[in-house]
Each structure stands twice: as C-alpha cells, then as structure tokens.
Write a structure and sequence with these properties.
The protein contains 7 helices and 13 strands. The protein has 278 residues and is α+β, with helices and mostly antiparallel strands. It folds into 2 domains: 64 residues, Winged helix-like DNA-binding domain superfamily/Winged helix DNA-binding domain (Arc Repressor Mutant, subunit A), CATH 1.10.10.10; 184 residues, Chorismate lyase-like (Chorismate lyase, 3-Layer(aba) Sandwich). A 7-stranded antiparallel beta sheet has the order 6-7-8-9-12-11-10. Strands 1-2 form a two-stranded antiparallel ribbon. A two-stranded parallel sheet has the order 3-13. α1 crosses α3. The longest helix is centred in the N-terminal third of the chain and has 14 residues. About 5% of the residues have low confidence.
Length: 278
C-alpha cells in the first residue's frame, strides 16, 4: 500500500494511492470503493482530504458516484452497446437501417411510445416527441440554410433496459421540405428507412454524409443521458442529401462515450466512366 508522506498535498497523495489500487486491480471495474470512513482509517487523513481525493478521481473519469450507494470504479472494458451506422437498399428498392421497428407493441400507459429492434436483437424503449423549432448557426450550416429557418423536429430518447444505456436521436426536417413532401409531416413514429423511402418516392436520389466528434455534454444532455461526471458524449451529425446534392434532413445522435461505440461499413466508391476520346 502506498504510504502518505507529510508534508505535501495530502489529497493528491490519497488520489494517487487509490488510483494505483484501481489500476492494479485491487478495486475491480464496477465494484464499490471503500467508504469515506474506511479510506480515512486506511490512509490516516481527514475526511475533507478523502473527499478532495475522490473528487479528483471523479474528474479523471476513474470513478463514478451512485446516489445513495457511494463511489464505484468505472468500467474500462468493452462498451456496453455498439451502434451500427449503415443504410442499405435492397434490389427491390427498399431501404433498411439498424433501427428497423420491432414487432413489439407500445405501452402508452407506461410512458413507452414505441420500441426499436437493434441488430443484436435487443429491444430499446423509445419516447417520441414532435415539435416546431428553428435552425441555429450550426444546424443551418449543415442544412445549407440560414438561421431562424422553420423546422419540424422529432426527438427520440432511447433506453436499453439490458445495459442501462440512454441515447438521444433528433431528426430535423425543414418546413420547406415537409411542405413539398407532405408524408414527412404525417407521423413522427415512422422509421428512418420509411423516411428515406418517402424521399425516394418524391424523386430524390439519396446519399449520406456523417460527422462524429467527442465533446463534453451540455447540462440537459448529461441529465437525459444519465452520465457520470467527467464523461464526454459522442456527437454525430448525419445529413441526408438528395437531388443535386441538396441537404434534405439532418439527424443528430448523442450517447455517452463511456458506454458506446460506433461501427461503420466502408465501401469503395466507383470512379465515373471516362468518355471515349477524353
């Protein structure tokens, strides 16, 4: 056991000792840390010193806190969930995506609007909300629109009962597009595959671009995603493009970076055929 030296910043020494115990496997991922009283006794320091040490380890992301249960070692293993990021089109012209609707009834009395079947066979609970909004500088740039342009927004809060993972999915549809393709405005409960089919039926030839970044969450995102302290989110922005490469809709997807990974299938684009004599 690491010894605490005096003089020196005691809380940093305690934090280093607990960090060493975590990295050595003495405290395994998911297991609770000793109580404050036990740490005070072990390292012969005051309770405020222990609290400062725990706060430092929380800021590093090594430990989390469960309200009413104390501190625990955060997992360093494989992510709890994998999100497949692909869109496929069958020979018959039908689109498929990883969020294909599951044949499981909704339960409005439980606050469940729908369920989604994931590729691994798990059923995620979905809460759906539709409302009107306007573009910001960021969303407007992705949609090639100015600020304050009218939008139809579908928000989905997804929850996996098996792993406890929460995710946020948002679809932003410009009013101009919804007016020209009325089927987009009829129901927020259609799947992405159905949205793509509607756009194709309206005459668009679709392709997609996606950007991914990691950042610290906003307070409301941290609350909705039930994130521990010092946990970044994976922030995805996918644009569906149509005829003449025009941006049609924007999807935003956010999930805790500590519990999820993204999986992509990458294919090689074919070069256009050269004209004879060129």
């Amino acid at each position: 056991m690491a010894e605490i030296q005096r003089p020196g910043a005691l809380y940093q020494q305690v934090a280093a000792a607990v960090r060493e115990a975590i990295l050595s496997g003495e405290y395994e991922p998911g297991s609770p840390l000793p109580s404050e009283a036990q740490l005070v006794e072990r390292y012969k320091v005051s309770r405020p010193t222990v609290r400062n040490a725990i706060a430092a380890l929380r800021a590093e992301g090594l430990i989390g806190v469960r309200h009413g249960k104390g501190s625990y070692v955060r997992s360093d293993g494989q992510p709890a969930v994998t999100f497949e990021r692909w869109v496929k089109r069958t020979r018959s012209g039908k689109y498929t995506t990883p969020d294909a609707p599951a044949a499981v009834p909704a339960a409005p009395e439980m606050g469940i609007d729908a369920t989604v079947r994931m590729p691994d066979g798990t059923n995620w609970v979905v809460e759906i909300k539709r409302y009107r909004s306007r573009t910001t500088k960021a969303t407007g740039a992705l949609l090639e629109l100015g600020e304050e342009e009218a939008l139809l927004v579908d928000d989905r809060l997804l929850f996996d009962p098996t792993s406890g993972t929460h995710a946020l999915h948002r679809t932003l549809i410009p009013f101009e597009l919804a007016e020209s393709v009325p089927a987009l405005a009829e129901s927020p409960e259609v799947s992405l595959a159905e949205v793509f089919a509607i756009l194709t039926q309206a005459g668009h030839e679709l392709w997609w671009s996606e950007r991914v970044r990691a950042r610290m969450p906003l307070p409301e995102e941290r609350l909705a995603l039930r994130l521990p302290d010092a946990t970044p989110v994976l922030d995805l922005a996918r644009v569906t493009h149509g005829t003449d490469d025009r941006p049609l809709i924007l999807e935003e997807f956010r999930v805790g970076a500590d519990c999820a990974e993204l999986a992509y299938r990458i294919t090689a684009d074919k070069e256009p055929a050269r004209r004879a004599g060129a």
